[in-house]
Amino acid sequence: MRTSHALLLRLYHDPQYDFGKVSVDYINRGAPGDRSTDSGEQIHRLEAGGMEIESAAGKTHIPYHRILLILYEGLPVWEKGTKKDKESQSSVD
User: What is the spatial distance between Cα 49 and Cα 52, in angstroms, rounded to a whole number?
Assistant: First the structure.
């Protein structure tokens, strides 16, 4: 099983990928529909327990367990609770 954290690290560090083309959808209590989406350009840091998002409002820590979906170039490469988070990714291995 590839975790969201492991996949984000791969997309960030592997020169084959442009982290600016990453999009992360996550649970964000209080946001419309309790969900938010940020691009790789807004992800300031990938830490052991979560990612740090930078916005006009400041920096926010998002735990990895709140990530629902990771897209690369607009295509899903990881989705919580589906087969895609239990097997190697088709486009990002």
Answer: 10
Q: With respect to residue 90, please indicate whether it lies within any of the assigned structural domains.
A: no
From CA 50, how far away is CA 25, in angstroms rounded? 14
In a domain, 64, yes or no: yes
- Could you report the per-residue pLDDT of 7-57, keeping only the tens digit for each? 999 999 999 999 999 999 999 998 899 999 999 999 999 999 999 999 888
CA distances from 83 to 2, 5, 89 (A): 11, 17, 10
85: in domain: no
Q: Give tens-digit pLDDT for 53-83.
A: 998 888 999 999 999 999 999 999 999 987 6
CATH number, residue 8: 2.30.30
Cβ atoms within 10 A of the Cβ of 32, count? 7
Q: Which residues contact 34 (CB under 8 A, 6 or more apart)?
A: 27, 28
Amino acid letter at 41? E
